[in-house]
Specification:
By secondary structure, this protein is an alpha/beta fold. The protein has a domain of 201 residues: Rossmann fold, CATH 3.40.50.1820. The chain is 48% helix and 15% strand. The chain has twelve helices and eight strands. Strands 1-2-4-3-5-6-7-8 form an eight-stranded mixed beta sheet, sandwiched between helices. β1 and β2 form a beta hairpin. α3 crosses α4 and α6 crosses α7. The longest helix has 39 residues. The chain is globular and about 75 Å long. It starts with a helix and ends in a 12-residue tail after the last helix.
């Protein structure tokens, strides 16, 4: 009996020690994430009110519009991955993300107008625009509503329509919502099973297994930089409730590059096909693999984007049915 008591006591002590270690690591990571955001965050007064953004680099300005569960920090990382240098990255936080408020009518057109206000406050007349994932609708709206300010538009794994969710998509959205419901749950998921989280976010585990070490590191860095998650939840809610404006994408007049992976399970290739079909003269650059993060193709994508920004034709129009 005494032996059992001792073993039970040892088990309790080990459990408590493990819980303490987990809590210590969680709080450390969350504090580091908050410090990272505080160091990179900028706020500027504009005609649309205060706008939060991040900025890096020097050269021709490029407006980088982040995806779901992002913010200015994700925009900066995606800009770094996509651009080879020599550009000034302007990365605003969309409505509801990080310190960006949610207006009464948080539509894609309103968000596009806020980008114009930001550029006015920064003294920038024209920009190239990169729209990633859920940043696609407001990127399209900026090109539609402010054509004189849009030199080029790049839609990368980006949303361009709002079809009803399939049952599989609804299940995926529900699983994501449960995972991001708290900072601790999300932190535990990306620490215990990062490959499963990436798969849920549109990058199959088979793709992850084939990635070069540096590209897998970038994909997991994006996961890490979604912490803290709770300051992104209002933005996620906005994204999930949005409606696409009715103005035809055929009215976009600037040069457009559309890149999408055929095996993207989060924002399927149908979205990229819709963009490429709807915008006259759009250059269509599909990837066979890579999932939602276009993983495994960062160098190729960087080359495409930088040549496109230099004025080259890097891909032909859509020829698929």
């Amino acid at each position: 009996m005494r032996t059992r008591t001792i073993l039970a006591w040892i088990g309790c002590e080990l459990a408590l020690a493990g819980a303490a270690w987990i809590y210590t690591r969680y709080t450390h990571d969350l504090q580091a994430a908050r410090a990272r955001l505080a160091a990179g965050r900028r706020v500027i007064e504009t005609a649309c009110g205060p706008i939060e953004y991040g900025e890096s680099g020097a050269g021709e300005p490029v407006l980088v519009i982040h995806g779901a569960a992002g913010g200015f920090d994700q925009g900066l990382t995606l800009g770094e991955v996509t651009l080879a240098g020599g550009y000034r990255i302007i990365a605003p936080s969309r409505f509801g993300y990080l310190g960006a408020p949610v207006p009464k009518a948080p539509s894609a057109p309103a968000q596009a107008d806020a980008y114009a206000c930001l550029l006015d406050a920064l003294g920038i007349r024209q920009v190239a625009v990169i729209g990633y994932s859920a940043g696609g609708p407001s990127a399209l709206q900026f090109a539609l509503r402010h054509p004189e300010r849009t030199t080029r538009l790049m839609m990368l794994a980006a949303i361009s329509m709002r079809p009803p969710l399939t049952s599989a998509e609804a299940r995926t959205e529900g699983a994501i919502n449960r995972m991001v419901a708290s900072d601790f749950l999300y932190w535990a998921a990306i620490r215990a099973a990062p490959s499963k989280v990436l798969a849920l976010l549109g990058v199959k585990e088979s793709v992850q297994a084939s990635l070069p070490v540096e590209e897998l590191h970038i994909a997991r860095r994006v996961l890490d930089e979604m912490l803290p998650m709770t300051v992104r939840l209002p933005g996620i809610a906005v994204d999930q409730a949005f409606e696409m404006p009715v103005e035809p994408l055929s009215h976009i007049t600037c040069p457009v590059l559309v890149a999408h992976a055929r095996d993207d399970t989060l924002v399927t290739i149908d979205y990229g096909l819709n963009t490429a079909r709807s915008i006259p003269g759009a250059q269509w650059a599909p990837f066979e693999t890579g999932g939602h993060f276009l993983a495994g193709h960062y160098r190729e994508l960087q080359g495409l984007v930088n040549r496109f920004l230099a004025g080259e034709t890097v891909a032909g129009p859509l020829k698929e049915p």
